[in-house]
Amino acid sequence: MLICAFLVVFFPPALPVPTEPHTVDYYNTIEATPKGSVVYFGTYFDYITAYVQSRDLYKAKLSHWASRDFKIVMLAFGQVSIAAFDGMVSYSNIEGKYGYEYGIDYVIMPYLSGDEPALAAAADIYSAYQTDVRGTPISQIPLLQQVRGLKDAQLIVYDGNVLTAPAMFVRQWAQAYNVKMIGGSFGELSVYYGKYVFGTMESAALYEFLSKNPGEELNKLDMLNLELLFTYGMIGIGILYNVRKKLTGKSETTARGGGAK
């Protein structure tokens, strides 16, 4: 196990990754969205572990979006969504790696309570907010001079851990403003798939692979693949050894028996 962990971290084996159509759709929708587009990124996290246990996946997401120069408006509807946004930006290092600037390339809006009515209100930034999360008036934020609300966005991304939230995002954002949405799981959003939702996140390892941002999920898959290869290899060696032993034993017995006669 430790050997496998060492190999995948320092010498990535580039083993095959099982494909999954909805995750591929998620990736392809991002790739099909023009560079420089505005992303309305809404999250509904009500406990921080929901983010922390998948932080490499969010690093891959932000890095992928930054590579396409997306302008990201981050909107928080869960009690720990602000902390999650701060963690994502810091861990993905989009400022250092991609030259992103707060207020120009991305902005974080304050937590807005109220569930579905809050989502509906947040579609119009200038009606729902007075400042960003840092207390800067929205009229002084360069990005929000161009983006006044959801009508100026080209893509909606949802993330969170609240089961009722995905459908709310579809109703209040994707359906109401006819903007493509990705995120959530297929089980939660299957009824909207292909009409309002154009990709869900079913395989974090596959997305890390496709976006060329390997992280924990892809490493775990590689470790599992190496363990299976090692196991099958040992089984194969054992079978060959037993076959050889039987064949060799049979020939020796025959030869000895022939000499006795």
What does this structure look like?
The protein has 261 residues and is α/β, with parallel strands linked by helices. The protein folds into two domains: 20-214, NAD(P)-binding Rossmann-like Domain (Rossmann fold), CATH 3.40.50.720; 218-261. 53% of the residues lie in helices and 10% in strands. Strands 3-2-1-4-5 form a five-stranded parallel sheet, sandwiched between helices. Strand 4 (155-160), helix 10 and strand 5 form a beta-alpha-beta unit.
Keyphrases for this structure?
single chain; 261 residues; alpha/beta; Rossmann fold; 2 domains; 5-stranded parallel sheet; disordered N terminus
Kindly estimate the percentage of residues that lie in beta strands according to DSSP. Answer: 5-15%
Low-pLDDT ranges:
1-11
Strand order of the largest sheet: 3-2-1-4-5
Question: Structural class, please?
Answer: alpha/beta
Q: Can you tell me the CATH superfamily of the largest domain?
A: NAD(P)-binding Rossmann-like Domain
- Which CATH first-tier class of the largest domain would you pick? Alpha Beta
